[in-house]
Amino acid sequence: MEPAPGPQEKYQLITRNLQEVLGEDKLMAILKERELKIYWGTATTGKPHVAYFVPMSKIADFLKAGCEVTILFADLHAYLDNMKAPWELLELRTRYYEHVIKAMLESIGVPLEKLKFVRGTDYQLSKEYTLDVYRLSSVVTQHDAKKAGAEVVKQVEHPLLSGLLYPGLQALDEEYLKVDAQFGGVDQRKIFTFAEKYLPSLGYAKRVHLMNPMVPGLTGSKMSSSEEDSKIDLLDRKEDVKKKLKKAFCEPGNVENNGVLSFIKHVLFPLKSEFVVLREEKWGGNKTYTAYEALEKDFAEQVVHPGDLKNSVEVALNKLLDPIREKFNCPELKKLSSAAYPTPSKTKPADKGTKNSEPEDVVPSRLDIRVGKVISVEKHPDADSLYVEKIDVGEAEPRTVVSGLVHFVPKEQLQDRLVVLLCNLKPQKMRGVESQGMVLCASSVGEPRQVEPLDPPAGCCAGERVYVEGYEGGEPDEELKPKKKVFEKLQADFRVSEDCVAQWKQRNFLTKLGTVSCKSLKGGSIS
């Protein structure tokens, strides 16, 4: 068993490949006393790409140095930054980030159990945090707030107030996450110095700040989610990786703004402590480098050809991406990916003037959900797994509803029961019987599968409206258009809480008499 590293060794691991450290003396003083507590935050905006391996590699260093590491999924920041993540997509994108960042860490061998994962909205909406935002806003000048966010917050001609709040929230995160240090790119420097200036004015300690260099993208500029050719997506196919690397800026002998070399330096070398340049025997055969400086020197002297360098990075990169691709090949994560990042081309040309209208409109108030009373239950004449029910939803005539509940709920338990019915789906025939609604049920996550119809509060009447907390006022669609997939998009965020309460994005399903629930399926899905 290797001996635990001493303070100086830990310092070297923590600071290697960094561009700058603010608070070096404090960092060393902490390391002499105890383990460092540090956090890295990422706003859940565009899709993470391969440049995210740069901070992941440093997180691996922090863990080797014994640090207590927190990863913050800054969902509220993503919204505040000029609404880069629309509110309606925020939860979906945060879940996508959680899955993909964890998959990246696993692909480079980082043990997830040693990390703490936190969402910004877990604490940023608390009374105490909100009060501190107000306290901070009473001492921060507009000039300082704008200057602090200049390199991070999207700059527009008429900036929103939300962008001025962004740096203050990031500063407060250091206190509320109870860390000694914050880690980020050097583009965060102005926010870090802002935090050092203003946190003491609230009576909070100044933190250490660790900064990575900005890694050039494949075009030679910063790797960006918004510039398609500058980055390789984590889920890009192997042929796309090859195509993008082939077009990458990698001029013979030029080591400046070389994204291919930078990726080797900041990701591949720290992970493996070596890099193998693959080439044919006639060009000297494979060569293993154990120091990045030697590789850079050979490239500068044109001993290593750009084509060989790109081919070697392609092989190494695909080894990192393969387990991520495999994880995201399951139907659930494919669905999450497409819902969190809907393809712009799917918007009809007529919608160009209101390109944001579709995601903005996908809100729970568009669903016509009502309390229903089951009047009769019969087996479907042509399907052993289906019931045909007559359900009173407060209309002149009861609705006919077909439900696949035969194997989960005995007929006598449905008879005269109050249920929760989605009433504005387009009617469709199920084995010859037209179904005019959907009984909403909770389903267990694991096997064997269990299903329980949702229960309205006791005392509800047939036809009573069921709504999601905070969305009481909107009018439901007369009929949901199947092509728009409004229900499917909303349903992706339906969950049963640990208290067995039905929720959408952690907001309760309600009637005027209280919450909608199920009997026992904690943490289940709803469909």
TrEMBL record:
Q: Which residues form the TRNA-binding domain?
A: 363-467
Q: Where in the cell is it found?
A: Cytoplasm; Nucleus
One Gene Ontology cellular component annotation? cytoplasm
Q: Which residues form a coiled coil?
A: none
Q: Which UniProt keywords apply?
A: Aminoacyl-tRNA synthetase, ATP-binding, Cytoplasm, Ligase, Nucleotide-binding, Nucleus, Protein biosynthesis, RNA-binding, tRNA-binding
Q: Which residue positions does the secretion signal occupy? A: none
Against SUPFAM superfamilies, the record matches this protein to: Nucleic acid-binding proteins (SSF50249), Nucleotidylyl transferase (SSF52374)
UniProt keyword ATP-binding, yes or no: yes
**GO biological process, alphabetically ordered:** response to stress; tyrosyl-tRNA aminoacylation
EC annotation from Swiss-Prot or TrEMBL: 6.1.1.1
Biased-composition ranges for Basic and acidic residues?
A: 348-358
Q: Which Pfam families match?
A: tRNA-synt_1b (PF00579), tRNA_bind (PF01588)
Instruction: List the GO molecular function terms.
Output: ATP binding; tRNA binding; tyrosine-tRNA ligase activity
Q: Does the keyword Transcription apply?
A: no
User: What protein family does this chain belong to?
Assistant: Belongs to the class-I aminoacyl-tRNA synthetase family.
Name-wise, this protein is Tyrosine--tRNA ligase
